[in-house]
Amino acid sequence: MRKIILLAFLSIAISAGAQETKSLTLKEAINYALQNKADAKKAKLEVENSEYKIEEVRSRALPQISANGSLTYNPILQTTYLDGGNFGGTPGSVVKLNFGQKWSSVAGVSLTQALFDQSVFTGLKAAKTTREFYQINAQLTEEQVIERVANNYYQVYVQRQKLAVLDSNYVNTTKVKNIIKGQFDNGLAKKIDLDRIVVKLSNISTQRQQVLNAVQLQENALKFYMGMPIETPISIPQTAFEVSPQALSEAPNTANRTEYLLLKKNEQLLEFQKKADMAAYYPTLSLTAGYNYIGQGPKVPLGAKPADGVYWSDYSAIGLNLKVPIFTGFSTRSKVRQDEVSLRSIKEDLIDTKLSLDLAYENAKTQIDNSIITIKNQKENAQLSQEVLNNTNNNYIQGLATLTDLLDAENAYIEAQNNYTAAILDYKLAEIQLIKSKGELKTLIN
User: Fold this and answer.
1) What residues are paired with 111 via a beta bridge?
2) For the domain that residue 206 is a member of, what is the CATH number?
3) Which spans of this chain does the record mark as coiled coil (predicted)?
4) CA dist 186 to 120, 190, 195, 199, 402, Å?
5) How far apart are CA 382 and CA 119, in angstroms?
6) Regarding beta strands 22-23 and 234-235, do their DSSP bridges make them parallel or antiparallel, or are they unpaired?
């Protein structure tokens, strides 16, 4: 029995060691996400895959070489009838001839080389743009990962701050409850006062459980956006976030934003697509060459010799293939016009994206300004509510304030602290949007 208990304790100890709490700064959380989140990994894979797509396009400009082989059995040979005079016989007579042999085998090599194909040349020019498109897309994905992680990181911090306020208030209220309990036991306090403070403690405990649940949910969301196993326990250092005015003198250059650059690259790719479709109007010229070795006879040629009635010979051919399009049923024209519509559409996207990015910057700037004022006011209000609570608590102990005054002061203190914490969160979220509007999200990991 003792051995079983000892093994149980060892198992619990090993499990606890395996679930060691991981302390995370914002920088560490973002770096972890960039290394482990599926979105970031997939974006890197797309960049790698773009190189293979480029190689696929380049392959169309290289020689295409293939080997071929066949084995054919002709159970009934083709028969033809010719004038016997052509073969030294009597003119007008008929000679019956069978063409071919019962068995034939061919093995050879063929080569095709594009000499002029406008679509291939256009594809080669588009290869560099394709690579750049996927690189910019990977950069945009990283920025999106950074933004999500930062937002959720601050959300976790705020929820934990709310939890800390409730914990502190619970401790203080418990002290008051003990005082009232002592007074009640000595006949110096009313039972209704004791009941009210007990109800207050119960309400704080309920609020604490709700906030604790919100903390857990927010931490799970953070770990999801980081690509971290959900069961991993984490902690965020209780450091005060810096709140300082941002540089708002100049609006950012929207043309340098990743979202805008990605659309511009997509526009270039659509231009190349249009040129590739227009290439169908141009002729194509290719070189073909082939060399084959054929064996024929009354039996399977493989391994057979002339002594077996099987004869082998080789032949080759070299040629030029020219294809000049004349009429394609207007399919090429339709494709080109579709490309033109896509280009007009993406130009509208560029205009709308620029407006959206400018709007995000102006909104973030306004929110920053308002949040700084709100934080200043709420900080003063929180400090004042703390002083009021302390004074009311002392007055209550000395019999100079009622329990109602004390409970009201506690409620005001909790509300003021939560308002201050919410103001900090609004500021930090607006700060992220401002940094994003400048295209500087990666500065969060520097």
Assistant:
1) 65, 289
2) 1.20.1600.10
3) 361-395
4) 98, 10, 16, 21, 18
5) 69
6) parallel
Tokens of residue 292, six digits: 């084959």
Please report whether residue 302 resides in a domain. no
Side-chain half-sphere exposure of 207, counting CA atoms within 13 A = 21
pLDDT tens, residue by residue, 20-42 = 788 888 899 999 999 999 999 99
pLDDT at 219: 93
Coil, strand, or helix at residue 71? strand
**What pLDDT score does 350 carry?**
95
pLDDT exceeding 70 applies to what percent of the chain? 92
């708002």: which residue's tokens? Answer: 248
For the record, the structure tokens of 20 come out as 């060691």
Does residue 3 lie within any of the structural domains? no
Residue 273 lies in domain: 23-73+116-283+324-445
Question: Is 152 within a domain?
Answer: yes
Candidates 411, 410, 409, 422; CA nearest to 379 is 422
Taking only the tens place, the pLDDT of each residue in 305-335 is 888 889 999 999 999 999 999 988 888 899 9
Amino acid at 362: E
Inter-helix orientation angle 26-36/118-185, to 10°: 140
Cα(163)–Cα(214) distance, integer angstroms: 10
Distance CA 357, CA 353 (A): 6
To the nearest 10 degrees (0 to 180), the angle between helices 118-185 and 258-278 is: 150
pLDDT at residue 16 above 60?
no
Please give the Cα distance from 428 to 433 (Å, whole number): 9
Q: Classify the phi-psi angles of 205: left when phi > 0, otherwise alpha if psi is within -120 to 50, otherwise beta.
A: alpha
The owner of tokens 């709140």 is: 243
